[in-house]
Amino acid sequence: MRAPRPKRVLLFANSAWNLYNFRRRLITALVAAGHDVVAVAPVDPAMPQLCALGCRTVPVAVDARGRSPLRDLALFGETLSLLARERPDVILTYTIKPNIYGTLAARLLGIPVIVTMTGLGTAFLAPGGAMRIARQLYRVALRSPHTVFFQNEDDRDLFVEDGLVAARRCALVPGSGVDLDRFRPVPLPPGPPTFLFIGRMLPEKGVGEFLEAARSVRARYPSARFQLLGPTCDGAAVADPAVQFLGAARDVRPFIARAHAVVLPSYREGTSRALLEAAAMGRPLIASDVPGCREAVEPGRNGLLCAPRSAAALAGALTEFLALPPRRWSEMGAQSRKLAGAQFDERLVVSRMLAAIESAMPVRYAAAAQVLPT
């Protein structure tokens, strides 16, 4: 009997950086199993790194934050043409526009799709026309996927209750997971207490609240340091004397190692990868009490939660943390690592993805599961 032919698995996201940083272990497992893996994303500096994993890359123009119907129509047409040419056996989509237009194009071609909701996006955080359009597009697109993975229960329940997706199609994963071998615990550093924000410099990430809280806390604790790590949308640095803007970094580990706590006052997440990486490195977490953040924080054990969209509430949590003895900071960090290991190991996510891919394939296979990195 001839062995089943290798399958073509296509992954589609709004950036090559996203695929390389968050799907690397999955891509590696699929390539090692002999499958033809195709990474579809806009060109960015991570494209060569994706190629080095052994997959093919296909550039596509995704205006991730744009709201032009003409550009979105062009994206749909480009996606349809690309899928017709590649004819993958299964498609994995990530981020809002690939989730919508990749799924719609795949439906026309009869290709099974596995969707991952990495977060609801800006359209769901700002009620109005954009939110209504996004919901309608999701309602149409999510009629046909084989599986829709959500990264927290709140997002799943919202989509099911609003009739955007059938409950039978839904599954849960603990975010994108975290590589516990790469993000290892390190002792808290000496020196003044340092709070590190990791994320894009966007209002919905809580940057404004972080800046205002930093100014308030430094008036009482002048030795406290506040840092922002991440890219800006327009390339401009954040200028505020209360904080140090570090810019973007390809490797966040050295910055986490020099911090005493990682802070994310986001308005909503899928499951924050920044919090998971910080937890894996043994850092206390201070975050807003919203879906995608609260999953990583056990209040009083490995960190603190505060009300969202409130600089005063964030300042209160920061002040509460500073009032604790450093011994408690270390204990919180140890609990963070324990939580990361128990619930957010990246291998758990990859195993569930491989099972979904196997189930969605026209011909079942088991090879990828056998080469899942350990």
Could you list some keywords that capture this structure?
Rossmann fold, 42% helix, 15 helices, 6-stranded parallel beta sheet, 7-stranded parallel beta sheet, alpha/beta
Structure description:
The protein has 374 residues and is an alpha/beta fold. The chain has two domains: 8-177 and 345-370, 3-Layer(aba) Sandwich (Rossmann fold), CATH 3.40.50.2000; 194-343, 3-Layer(aba) Sandwich (Rossmann fold), CATH 3.40.50. The protein has helices at 16-22, 24-32, 47-52, 69-86, 96-109, 122-125, 129-141, 153-161, 207-220, 253-257, 273-280, 311-322, 326-343, 346-360, 367-370; strands at residues 8-12, 36-41, 56-59, 90-94, 113-117, 147-150, 170-172, 194-198, 225-229, 244-247, 261-264, 285-288, 303-306. The strands form two sheets. Strands 3-2-1-4-5-6-7 form a seven-stranded parallel sheet, with helices on both faces. A six-stranded parallel sheet has the order 10-9-8-11-12-13, sandwiched between helices. Helix 4 (69-86) packs across helix 5 (96-109), helix 5 (96-109) packs parallel to helix 7 and helix 11 crosses helix 13.
